[in-house]
Design goal:
The protein is of the alpha/beta class. Strands 5-4-3-6-7-8 form a six-stranded mixed sheet, with helices on both faces. The chain contains 15 helices and eight strands. Helix content is 54%, strand content 10%. It folds into two domains: 126 residues, no CATH class; 198 residues, von Willebrand factor, type A domain (Rossmann fold), CATH 3.40.50.
């Protein structure tokens, strides 16, 4: 059942594709005269009867036989059309046409060619419909796999909207998984040891079942995103992902920085996410990065938001332009929070090169991971949601 505007639009599109009516031939072929020579077997005779229902049924059977529903790519169209026509006995049709040419029966020849062309058109329409239904989905899946696994920095501007849709899809999957874990946790798991122990006085008959429960909370997150030019792509996708998890996240505070730190939570809450991201990048992004200044500003204004239930996510390459890294503040954040997870879009081999402070920042983080692709980003956030309280 369609539950959203997007689902409803997809349903309408699929309904139209699957039940699309095809125009019948403008003129039904008349039944052949007894003198017409047709050696093409049952389907050839059926074609000339003008029974469109039976013709369609035979075409559908032939399409199933050749596996038309396994189509994955549009370029398979002509291959499948040819296979279906061979399954229907097209070589015999062509022999019939040759015989009609030899006998000089122009009327029968015209009738036969018109019917033959109409059937070929029907076969092409069947294949086109299956391509619409199945190949488009396969192509979409291939595109999503490519976007999920290429380097985030390599995502082209024209693919940005598709990548954002993919990130939202990832967030929905993560939210569903987390909701299921919470339901299982509330239900509990059978405690076999305790159940058996309690059954011992009753000759091993388990009159009373014991259950053990593990609390799965609604996590609290603080996100600090470097939105300087070098990592801006990763930052925007992380913000989209986190703000698409609002159903399972108890609290989420988001901050963006380059040359200064700004609370962007209100912008993300109030605007459409795409509009919000553009506004954040315009107002805060592309400056000269100072992680030390960002940590100092956070400690001065927002440290009260951090408690032992808070997971702090820092996304950035750790390149501090040779400024003070303020390691003592990062250490304070780590000690006051549940954990500090640093996500770096750069490959680990680049950490510590040039003005990178990553080796030092890594020592004061609970975990530091590379997140060069959307799939890696999804995996890391999924692991954080799975972690027990």
């Amino acid at each position: 059942m369609a539950k959203s505007e997007m689902d409803e639009a997809r349903f309408e599109q699929c309904f139209d594709r699957f039940f699309r009516h095809h125009e019948e031939p403008t003129e039904r072929a008349a039944k052949p005269r007894e003198t017409a020579s047709t050696s093409g077997g049952g389907f050839a005779q059926l074609m000339l009867t003008g029974d469109a229902v039976m013709v369609d049924a035979q075409i559908a059977r032939a399409a199933r036989t050749v596996g038309v529903r396994q189509v994955q790519y549009g370029f398979q169209r002509n291959i499948l059309v040819g296979r279906i026509l061979r399954e229907l006995g097209m070589p015999d049709w062509d022999r019939d046409v040759a015989q009609l040419v030899d006998t000089g029966n122009d009327e029968d020849l015209a009738q036969w060619q018109a019917t033959r062309n109409a059937v070929i058109s029907k076969v092409k329409a069947v294949v086109d419909r299956q391509i619409d239904l199945y190949a488009s989905n396969a192509a979409q899946q291939m595109r999503e796999e490519r976007l999920a696994n290429i380097d985030i920095a390599a995502i082209r501007p024209e693919d940005r909207q598709a990548a954002i849709r993919l990130v939202r899809k990832m967030a929905k999957a993560l939210a569903t998984q987390h909701s299921r874990r919470r339901k299982r946790a509330r239900r509990g798991q059978l405690d076999m040891r305790k159940t058996i122990r309690q059954a011992m006085p009753h000759e091993g008959i388990p009159f009373q079942l014991s259950w053990k429960q593990q609390s799965v909370d609604r996590p609290k997150f603080i996100v600090l995103c470097d939105v300087s030019r070098s990592v801006v792509n990763a930052a925007q996708f992380l913000l989209v992902l986190m703000y698409s998890l609002n159903e399972v996240v108890d609290q989420l505070h988001a901050f963006a920085f380059s040359d200064r730190l700004e609370d962007v939570g209100r912008v993300l809450d109030g605007d459409d996410i795409d509009v919000a991201i553009e506004r954040i990048l315009r107002e805060v992004g592309f400056g000269s990065t100072s992680y030390g200044d960002a940590f100092s500003a956070f400690a001065e204004r927002y440290m009260h938001l951090v408690d032992r239930h808070t997971s702090v996510i820092i996304l950035g390459d750790g390149r501090n332009n040779y400024g003070d890294p303020q390691l003592d503040i990062l250490d304070r954040i780590r000690r006051q929070s549940r954990r500090v997870v640093w996500l770096n879009p750069e490959a680990e081999r680049s950490w510590g090169t040039g003005d990178s402070e990553m080796p030092a920042y890594r020592r004061f983080s609970t975990m530091a991971r590379t997140c060069g692709s959307l799939s890696e980003l999804q995996t890391i956030i999924g692991d954080m949601l799975r972690a027990p309280r």
